[in-house]
């Protein structure tokens, strides 16, 4: 995948494309890698996750997927009154709000981890039993390659922590872990708390115990801002 494709996708209405996929593909069963890419894109629709979805689709599906992304427009959905919408448009506003919320909180999580890592209060590691090949692959999809003489893990740490685009590209492979209020807690790259299985499944591991309270406060503030106000 090239930077050119990434730029093309940046000009697409990817939130509408994600909504169309949610409606069109409900209940269908896909191979594990495609299902994971679909799940990531329909939670965090952005050029980086769109590139990943296109990459894992076999021919000719990838061309159909790309065409659907290029063609997606939210104009009609936004202009049709709710009372006149059919099943294909039910829940439109709610889904759009969830996309926007996930994009915002992902940016907040990445920014928080970057600042905390820069101050030495967050450690960044990787799954000890794996070779990080999936991470390198995701970065190649958005046009980033490790130099021949560069340290592999340091390259990944720098890119994933410092660049929002890379953080989004590997968002589903991230676990944020910290001990807070006397117990272990685990969050994914969207700031959603999960169980310890998340730690075992993830490729990128952020240890935030020293700043866990501040992290929780940040998530709580973001959640409060995202609540509808009457």
What does this structure look like?
This protein is an alpha+beta fold and 230 residues long. It folds into two domains: 3-90, no CATH class; 105-226, no CATH class. It is 56% helix and 10% strand. The protein is built from twelve helices and five strands. It has helices at 3-10, 14-24, 32-41, 47-56, 61-71, 75-79, 92-118, 133-141, 152-162, 164-169, 197-201, 212-226; strands at 123-126, 174-180, 183-188, 193-194, 204-207. The chain has a five-stranded mixed sheet with strand order 1-5-2-3-4. α2 packs across α5 and α4 packs antiparallel against α5. The chain is globular, with a radius of gyration of 18 Å.
Q: Report the structural category.
A: alpha+beta
Mean pLDDT over all positions: 92
Order of helices and strands: HHHHHHHEHHHEEEHEH
| Approximate strand percentage | 5-15%
Instruction: Return the domain count.
Output: 2
The strand count comes to: 5
Strands side by side in the biggest sheet = 1-5-2-3-4
Helix count, per DSSP? 12
Residue share in helix: 55-70%
Q: Major β-sheet, in short?
A: 5 strands, mixed
Choose one word for the global shape. globular
Q: What distance lies between the first and last C-alpha atoms, to the nearest angstrom?
A: 45 Å
- CA-based gyration radius: 18 Å
Q: Which blocks of ≥5 consecutive residues have pLDDT under 50?
A: none
